[in-house]
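Bug #77: duplicate submission created two jobs. Keeping one. Sequence:
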Amino acid sequence: MSSKLSSLSARSIVYYEARVSFGMTVLLAVLGLPACALISALNWRDVPRAFAQVMEVFELGLPLVAGIASAHLMSVEREERFDALRDSYPEPIWHVPLLRTLGALELTLLCLLSGLISFRVVYGEFDVRLIVLAACPPAIYLSGLALLIGNLAQNGWAASAAVIGYWAFEFQLGGTQTQTLFLFDKTHPLNGVNYDVNRLLLIAVGGGFMLANYAVYRLRRRGVILAR
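Kept job's structure:
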């Protein structure tokens, strides 16, 4: 009997987290790279196809859409006004931030796969490994930032604005301020910045944002940080 209840509870958690993670905003973000593929296909009618263009679309586009897709994950209960009910659940403090971090990584993967499939159709074969190595580290960075800002502000729109603002800051200034943490160093390389170190640092700092997100959630549950 207890095993059946446990199985039912696990299924309920999976269903709940899926509903939280996959909404209309997420669907629009996931369609971002396929939309770029369609625009590229129309453009390629008049100009030669170039893998450099595909690479640039992924390095610029994946971090943005992944960050926007993850922006609501840490604030959805607050925004729907059932955060007090969720806090009353008998679950470990680490449970929610872990599930939402996994959700952010899943959404990043979903955005990546939708883009890869779309560009495979309109472009043809290309080196997927190069795309993944270039686009995933900055995507992890902005997804981690989105989780942290969404948790601190308890507002998904604020997290989306932070992601878009940071992305635009990097794009406009070309990494002159962030240097080794420049998001787009593959397609817009900076002098004096080691690309491999840059990608590793983006992953490390993105992971740091996710750990900080857990710390903020823990402090809020303990009442050290008051709910907004």
